[in-house]
Amino acid sequence: MNRITQLFDIKYPIVQAGMIWNSGWKLASAASNSGVLGLLGAGSMYPDVLREHIQKCKAATDKPFGVNVPMLYPNIEEIMNIIVEEDVKIVFTSAGNPKTWTNWLKERGITVVHVVSSLKFALKAQEAGVDAIVAEGFEAGGHNGRDETTTLTLIPMVKEHIKIPLIAAGGIATGKGMLATMILGADGVQVGSRFVASTESSTHQNFKQVVVDAKEGDTQLTLKELAPVRLVKNKFFNELQELYKTAPTIDELKELLGRARAKRGMFEGDLEDGELEIGQIAGLIHDIKPVSEIVEDIITEFNSAKQDIANFDF
Predict the structure, then answer these.
(1) Average confidence (pLDDT) over 152-181
(2) Cβ 48 vs Cβ 77: under 8 Å
(3) Count of C-beta atoms within a 10 Å radius of residue 74
């Protein structure tokens, strides 16, 4: 048993990322039932919708699961109160100051994990009293770090300075990737993009197929002035690049982005005008399959790669 399996009372040190428009109760419960930690993505849920997903997740699994809460979203107080009322024991916070909610949650018996993209924020999170940290490299999909620090360099840098458990994220979709980051010092991994292309993901089938079809170079980090996000290059992305040529103001960027563009792309399947968030690792994802098979594949490859390393001879 390692520090992550112990902290969350799970079989494997893997967290299914709580991604907007992807991580509903079907994905989270399937992940938890497969021996990893399932997370609901509260960022795309109104408070009453989150409550419904928590209740359905409880009914679908007797294993631990948690909720990922991006702190830049509205209704944050209502969301936190629902989490407490529904007796969820694990919360991942992101996109905000960990000091804001960590003590409040821990006083209510909740395990708190904070997602960071740099050593500076990892140290702030440790100081705030979180139970573990997710350090997410530049390769990741969704909201990302402005410094473009890759997972390969971020994990050992963070490991060198923190004492609490460390979860690696960004560019991890395989057992070999999991082993590599754990050799670098991670206690476990958070996997996002691979679970997007799962049967149980709540995202639109059109978007799942885009992930499967994606090749190396098909995504790019953009919108750093607002919140850095890695997007598939589509019509909307190209319009964004054209706007950048005019040295746009933040208001002009916001105007082009508009409202609910991520929902339009990932949840409703608009592949032209929608915002399609996915990690660079999409180039290694070639099929859509059940969560249980994805977890089995990762663990089988992890154990095989570990054996290969043990047999490696110089």
Answers:
(1) 98
(2) no
(3) 9
Do 22 and 203 meet the contact criterion of CB atoms below 8 Å apart?
Answer: yes
Cβ burial 169-191 (10 Å sphere, 16+ → b, else e): bbbbbbbbbbbbbbebbbbbbbb
**Amino acid code (one letter) for 237:** F
pLDDT digits (tens, 9 = 90+) for 101-116: 999 999 999 999 999 9
What the chain holds in terms of domains, given with CATH numbers, is 3-202+289-307 (3.20.20.70), 212-281 (no CATH)
Query: Tens digit of pLDDT for each residue in 9-29?
Result: 999 999 999 999 999 999 999
Evaluate if residue 307 carries a pLDDT over 90: yes
Rounded distance, CA 214 to CA 218, Å?
A: 6
Q: 0.90 exceeded by the pTM? A: yes
Please answer whether residues 279 and 140 qualify as being in contact, where contact means their C-beta atoms are separated by less than 8 angstroms: yes
Say how far apart CA 26 and CA 108 lie, in whole Å: 26
Residue 115's beta-bridge partner residues? 134
Alpha-carbon gap, residue 76 to 303, rounded angstroms: 40
Answer yes or no: are the C-beta atoms of 186 and 12 closer than 8 Å. Answer: no
21 touches 41 (CB < 8 A): yes
Q: What is the pLDDT of residues 276-303, one digit of tens each?
A: 999 999 999 999 999 999 999 999 999 9
Alpha-carbon span 45 to 43, nearest angstrom: 6
Between strands 14-16 and 188-191, the pairing is: parallel
Q: At what angle do helices 25-33 and 291-311 cross, to 10 degrees?
A: 40
Tokens 């300075």 correspond to what residue?
Answer: 161
pLDDT at 1 over 70: no
Please give the helix or strand (H or E) that residue 82 lies within, else none.
helix 76-85
Place of tokens 């790669």: 305
How far is Cα 208 from Cα 278, in angstroms, rounded to an integer? 10
